[in-house]
Amino acid sequence: MKTRDLLHPLSAVRAFEAVARLRSISSAAIDLGVTQPAISQQVKKLEAHLRVRLIERVSNTIRLSPEGEKLALSLHTAFEIMRDGMEAAMSQGQVTLAVLGTFAQRWLIPRLTNLQESYPDIDLRLITRSKLEDLDKGGVDLIIKPEQRGLASKAALFLMGDEAQIVMSPELQKRKPILSVDDLDQHFLIKVDEVPRDQDWQKWCIEASIGNLQPRGWHVFSNSSHALEAAIAGVGVAIGHWPMVMDAMYSGRLVCPIDVVINRGMGYYIYEGAGALGNPHVSLLKKWLVSQVAKN
Fold it and tell me: Would you say 63 and 56 are in contact if contact means Cβ atoms under 8 Å apart?
């Protein structure tokens, strides 16, 4: 049989495959989005083309003839291969990246325009999580997460440090300057009430050799990004981790009044997930991520 003869009843083949798979003309019609008479007509067309009976009606149901069963088995396999091929073609270039929400908002998303310009073939699927333990769920290709440098896996790629310092708006620093740790008593302090950021002020006090902070008051946020926005707005003094504040520091929206650093030895690392195997765009995305840090 010539190729053109096989291609002629392609819509009929599709209709019969649906009927054979679902064992119902009405279900096949719903599956393909056509009417039941259209399905019946296509099956009859295929039977006429092949000169063989494919479907037999028994009472109010249908069953496949022996020839229909053989054809259905081949078609199921063929359509599965086609579906797999289509999915592979659609996902070519796609990379799924999982990061913490604040990291995405304050560091990654502002740089995505550059990713589009540098690697237009990369189809980035960004997943944001609020908890570290949720980052590697869902078969992702890449994960970016903070870890202690000595504890990070050898397979991980170091991206940037996660050191933290106190930050405030330049207007607030001008109005009520902080020249020493004692000046914090005149300010409202901004705290993040989520693990592990809820320990930042305690760590800072230890590093700054302060026994007990007695500020004018506290503003507590459940989200790090919101806390930093409050600091930019001049609401008070916050502790900013470098990846989250670097853009605001470079642009002058935040300043660091005292050079006391916490979180030394912590860094953000890139891990490859199970889905990364054989995807060349994963390596390109990793290369791009590192290049963005190098620019700073």
Answer: yes
